[in-house]
Every structure is written in C-alpha cells, then in structure tokens.
Amino acid sequence: MTKRVVTALVQNQNGIFTRLMGMFHKHQYRIESLAVAVAYPELKDVSKMSVILEVEDDHKFLQLVKQVNKQVDVLFVTEVTDELFIERELALMKKFLV
C-alpha cells in the first residue's frame, strides 16, 4: 500500500465534507489524515481540504480523484503526493503565527 495526498478547494456548503468522506468510504480507502481550514483569509466561503489516503490501485485512485472533481461544491482537486507541500504548509503556518 502506498500513501497518496489529495488537496481540494471546496465551497463551504452543508454536507460537502460528509459527501466527500462518503465517497472515500464507498471506494474503501483508509483515511490516514484529514485537515480542513479556510483556504484564504479573504475568501471565508472557500476551504482547503487535505487528505492522506492509503492506496492499493493507482488507476482506481485516479478515478476517485476525477469523481471528486465533478462534485458541484468542489472547485479544484489535485494530487500532491510527490510535491514539496510540507515545507510550503509550514511556511504558511509560520506566516500566520508570527
């Protein structure tokens, strides 16, 4: 099993997170980590959701990403497993904490 990281920008609507988590559950993915925060301070109606999943089949995983992207309240989905996202996220945290 490999770990894959997916980030999604979503509109803050009732039930969007429940619907997305239901999709992950339906496809039998184990969610290792989930983080949700306001994506940009000036856009309070948009949240960024980061999910770490355990994946067995890459093709099935890519199909899931496409299905998530088709949801009405989802603005953008990207798979960032190979990117240096940890450094970027820590830099953003430092910026807002200082």
The CATH architecture designation is 2-Layer Sandwich
Helix content: 25-40%
CATH fold assignment: Alpha-Beta Plaits
Oligomer: single chain
Indicate the radius of gyration in whole angstroms. 14 Å
Question: What is the typical, i.e. mean, pLDDT?
Answer: 82
Distance between the termini: 38 Å
Which key terms come to mind for this protein?
single chain, 98 residues, alpha+beta, Alpha-Beta Plaits, 4-stranded antiparallel β-sheet, 41% strand, EC 2.2.1.6, branched-chain amino acid biosynthesis, transferase, AHAS_small-like_ACT, Acetolactate synthase small subunit
Write the layout of secondary structure elements.
Layout: E1 2-11, H1 16-26, E2 30-40, E3 43-55, H2 58-69, E4 74-79, H3 85-97
Antiparallel strand pairs: 1-3, 1-4, 2-3
Keywords: Amino-acid biosynthesis, Branched-chain amino acid biosynthesis, Transferase
InterPro entries: Acetalactate_synth_ssu (IPR004789), ACT-like_dom_sf (IPR045865), ACT_dom (IPR002912), AHAS_small-like_ACT (IPR054480)
Pathway: Amino-acid biosynthesis; L-valine biosynthesis; L-valine from pyruvate: step 1/4; Amino-acid biosynthesis; L-isoleucine biosynthesis; L-isoleucine from 2-oxobutanoate: step 1/4
